[in-house]
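Researcher: Let's do a round of design. I'm pasting the structure tokens now; please hold your answer until I've finished.
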């Protein structure tokens, strides 16, 4: 189970939950832009609120069978966006929109074109 450091003790984010919850997003579909010096990939969302939020979200998606379409779980990744002094808002926004578009395309589900402009 994922842990979160609260005060001076460690407790599970979801009591009785599994030790590991793999992402529901297709990582192979997400383009790795190696030209972006701020882009780093990790298997760890951290050990504070980030880890707990990510773990609880993945747990909820799996426990409640939240589907994007028949047979496809809602894709979920955790993104740490660098501070604005390292990556301007426009660049961060474009990075997140591109990543979301890649995830949606990879889900194999139909999409509504009226929203596609948001994801690039």
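Researcher: That's everything. Go ahead.
Model: Designed sequence:
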């Amino acid at each position: 189970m994922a842990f979160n450091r609260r005060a001076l003790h460690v407790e599970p984010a979801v009591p009785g939950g599994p030790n590991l919850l793999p992402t529901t997003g297709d990582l192979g579909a997400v383009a790795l832009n190696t030209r972006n010096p701020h882009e780093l990939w990790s298997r760890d969302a951290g050990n504070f609120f980030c880890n707990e939020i990510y773990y609880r979200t993945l747990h909820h998606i799996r426990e409640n069978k939240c589907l994007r379409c028949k047979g496809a779980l809602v894709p979920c990744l955790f993104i740490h966006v660098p501070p604005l002094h390292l990556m301007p808002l426009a660049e961060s926004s474009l990075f997140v929109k591109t990543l979301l578009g890649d995830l949606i395309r990879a889900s194999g589900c139909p999409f509504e074109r009226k929203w596609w402009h948001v994801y690039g």
